[in-house]
């Protein structure tokens, strides 16, 4: 902990790379970890297909049911991790997140790159482009005026590319950092996991995760619950 505090104090630019584990203390299940939604056997298709563009287009009802039951937690509140990260990144850095829950922004973070978009912005009809509030979308995925399908607008589904602006911003965030803190992610999903290849050779790196990520020896690995760690910062 002392080492981590010192690294943060000395850093000029801190880039956080975050995943589902930073939102689990806010009550949002980590769908890749044990007991997460990817292990559930309730659905006919594997979760990668559930969250795919193909499923959205071919089975909009199944897609909708899945995201409403498993992804939307509009009442979730930011936790200590979001709050501390917001403080630090607002002062000197940026947060690049895989999470689509908008909790970093809700915590007051101003410099956030949502690598996979989010579930709440630009929800729109695929046919006419009309925008809807997430509350309306949760109730119904059909736009009855034109029979169009409504979708979360910025969320990147399987089979869709990362928004080039987000990709570019994320790469810059990693290049600019002299301290990179990876938290709450198994770091197995590409292209997100590939971002660290862009780090400067002088950048220090810290990984905070319940399981050791097996990154190279130059990385300070803190094998602990991220909420415990950020609570002590
Ligand atoms: Zn429409």
From TrEMBL:
Residues 1-233 form the Deacetylase sirtuin-type domain. The keyword Ribosomal protein does not apply. Signal peptide: none annotated. It comes from the Bacteria. Keywords: NAD, Transferase. It comes from Companilactobacillus ginsenosidimutans. GO terms for molecular function: histone deacetylase activity, NAD-dependent; NAD+ binding. This is protein acetyllysine N-acetyltransferase. It holds the Pfam family SIR2. It is an enzyme of class 2 (transferase). Its EC number is 2.3.1.286. InterPro entries: DHS-like_NAD/FAD-binding_dom, NAD-dep_sirtuin_deacylases, Sirtuin, Sirtuin_cat_small_dom_sf, Ssirtuin_cat_dom. The keyword S-adenosyl-L-methionine does not apply. PANTHER family: NAD-DEPENDENT PROTEIN DEACYLASE, NAD-DEPENDENT PROTEIN DEACYLASE SIRTUIN-5, MITOCHONDRIAL-RELATED.
């Amino acid at each position: 902990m002392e080492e981590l505090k010192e690294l943060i104090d000395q850093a000029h630019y801190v880039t956080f790379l975050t995943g589902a584990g930073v939102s689990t203390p806010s009550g949002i299940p980590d769908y890749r970890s044990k007991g997460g939604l990817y292990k559930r056997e309730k659905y006919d298709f594997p979760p990668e297909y559930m969250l795919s563009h193909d499923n959205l287009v071919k089975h909009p009802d199944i897609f909708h049911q899945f995201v409403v039951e498993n992804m939307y937690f509009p009442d979730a509140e930011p936790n200590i991790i979001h709050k501390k990260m917001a403080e630090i990144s607002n002062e000197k850095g940026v947060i690049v997140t895989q999470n689509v829950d908008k909790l970093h922004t809700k915590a007051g973070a101003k410099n956030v790159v949502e690598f996979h978009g989010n579930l709440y912005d630009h929800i729109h009809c695929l046919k006419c482009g009309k925008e809807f509030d997430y509350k309306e979308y949760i109730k119904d995925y059909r736009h009855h005026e034109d029979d169009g399908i409504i979708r979360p607008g910025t969320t990147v589904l399987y089979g869709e590319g990362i928004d080039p602006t987000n990709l570019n911003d994320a790469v810059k965030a990693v290049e600019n950092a002299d301290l990179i803190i990876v938290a709450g992610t198994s770091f197995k999903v590409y292209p997100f996991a590939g971002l660290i290849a862009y780090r400067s050779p002088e950048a220090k790196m810290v990984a905070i995760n319940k399981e050791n990520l097996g990154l190279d020896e130059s990385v300070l690995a803190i094998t602990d619950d991220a909420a415990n760690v950020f609570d002590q910062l």
